[in-house]
Amino acid sequence: MPAPPTLGVEEEFVLADRGTRSAVCRSLSVVSAARDHLGGPHVVPELSQSQVETVSGVCRTGVELEAEIVRLRAGAAAAAAEHDCLLVPSGVAVLGRSGPPPVLDQARYQALARRFGQVIHEQGVNACHVHVGVAAREEAIQAVNHLRGWMPLLLALTANSPYCDGRDTGYASWRSMVWSRWPSAGPPPHLRGAAHYEQVVGQLMGSGAALDPAMVYWYVRPSAHLPTIEVRIADVLPDAGATTAYALLVRALVGHAVEVVRAAELAPEVPDLLLRAAYWQAARHGPSGTLPGTHIHDCAPMTVGRLIEELWKRVEPYLSRYGDDRRVGDWLADVQLNGSGSARQRRVAERHEDGLRAVVDDLAVEIP
Length: 368
Fold this sequence. Notes:
By secondary structure, the protein is α+β, with helices and mostly antiparallel strands. Helices cover 48% and strands 14% of the residues. The chain has 14 helices and eleven strands. The strands form three sheets. Strands 1, 2, 3, 4, 5, 8 and 9 form a seven-stranded antiparallel β-sheet that branches. Strands 6-7 form a two-stranded antiparallel ribbon. β8 (220-222) and β9 (228-235) form a beta hairpin. α1 (27-38) packs across α2, α6 (151-158) packs parallel to α10 (272-285) and α9 (240-262) packs across α11. The chain is globular, with a radius of gyration of 19 Å.
């Protein structure tokens, strides 16, 4: 059996003050301390001073990936504690507002601020990005056409940001609504091939909507700098086990997409407008709603439960091949029974008198 495709995960977190539980601008200090714990490449600053990002090593198995995610979360949490912070995996800050863009290394961020104005100051949102190794560039680009229709379901399953700045937004994933304000964010277009991809990216940059290729903020894309497909749709998930299961699901879905490309199957050309409507439904309702079936040509509406069944038929052979089927199946069953991270946050808030402070405490990564 060939080795499993490579897998890597990037997770973004809110830094919350240990006393107030509100977002706090200490990222540069925390990143410096975290690099002492974990090594330079594995913890980096993000767009806001109240965020940090962890970057996993390249993994092959679920056991290896989960151990890496646990290690990185624990090291980043320990560094945050040194500066009186909690490391909080929520798509947006539950209490308080994310801080302004950082001021060091920050030529690129300052260029973003000059070009995009208030949009950049409203960000500070936290996602989970999964990289899956696909060596052939043309194959990766064609596979993206088959993956784009599955992104609304993945968002529904991972929605984890109902509260923002102390208020219930009414959404399961407020992060995705904030992120969609970037002019280059959204579904990728249906791409004819590598030359078309390069043309579209060049046109986005020429229009001013993207500063550089890294700012093509599609929800699934061929990586600009790695031989991978990058799935960027998810909120950061509440715990390492859920993150691992989600990443393994993504790898299996990419495996299926590559196989149908090799079989010369045509991807449905779902209109961007309908995909955006499906993203909105997923962000609003999470896994409790109904979504257009944007993975098929007629886009017939389906419950999330039915969509999971459709997804499982496609990914189960790849999950079973690498021994990941039980872990992923258990996670999907749990989401169907108990909801995504957003439902968990609301249950905690309802059970505790101190409401959203309790939500932050429940989410905060524990230090071993």
